[in-house]
Design brief:
The chain is an alpha/beta fold. It has helices at residues 2-15, 39-47, 49-56, 72-81, 91-100, 148-161, 178-187, 201-206, 217-221, 233-238, 240-259, 261-272, 278-285, 299-309; strands spanning 27-32, 63-68, 86-90, 107-112, 119-122, 139-141, 173-175, 194-196, 212-216, 227-232. The longest helix has 20 residues, at 240-259.
Amino acid sequence: MLLLRSLAIAVLSLACLTTPGRAESDRLRIGMQNGLPYMQLVLMRERDTVGARAREAGLTSLRTEFVTVGGPAVLNDGLISGEIDVGAVGMSNLITMWDKTRGAGAIRGLSGMNVMPLLLISSDARIKTIADYAPADRIALPSVKVSMQAMMLDILAAKTFGEAEYRKLDPNTVSIGHPDATAGLIAGGGAFTSHFSSLPYQYFELAQPGVHVVASSFDAIGPHSVSALSATTKFRTENPKTVAVFLAALYDTTVSIRENPRAAAETYLRATRDKMTIDELLAMMSGPGVVFNLEPQGAGNTADFMFKAGAIKHKPDSWRDLYFDTVGTNGS
């Protein structure tokens, strides 16, 4: 809870940065994808947590819009174009955008959300390790080359085939959203037999006969945040009270998940209509490696690989370069 308290203090400090005489935006557009990594945002939408915090802060006209998209490429474009104010993007996406927008207008992370393993899953009995993929074997993931799963696959390939061969499995990948990829893998007979997945989809897939784990993203960089809540420096500078309200609502929601996971699970299922029981969802929420914590993890290791591989031109001196000052203490 110490890290959550640290964020609460940072939020209060941020709220004091308002530029005198300048009105803040009356709209906050939040971008996300489907799946358990976005649980806090789903709960914030359903419970109007941002609205409650906004009213407390005197931002009575603030309207919050949650936009759900099928892959990270749309979120990246939305942040860069200004169509999305805060986006839950994979760490590799944050690092890429930070590299491309360095300077006064840089996109940086506001907070982590949770730590969860992303599992590479296959229904092909022949494929047991990364080394078993043949050129014709297809791997479904949210967005080729730019998704968190795509970057984790590159790191796993580098560890298996050598650093110079980190892109060896890129031609095997196809862009398919998690819900469709899960349905296709379970149905079988499709163009792909592997899916670099996330919760809850990997849980459903592994419940099927013959479906098994090939590798985990934790094998690539250790425990890591799945998403980084990110924004442009311009939006944060011009809307400090709005950002502070959002982070306070995020803090409230994260605490509520930890203190009352069953209520959180009930709200999540009511909102998403996912086909699972409360007990199944609670099992996922308390599963191996799953932690609801706002402290970023894994950004430093991911950035080191991306710079070494030439995926980014500038190497951050520290993982903290990638984030604003409203984060925890461990981004390794």
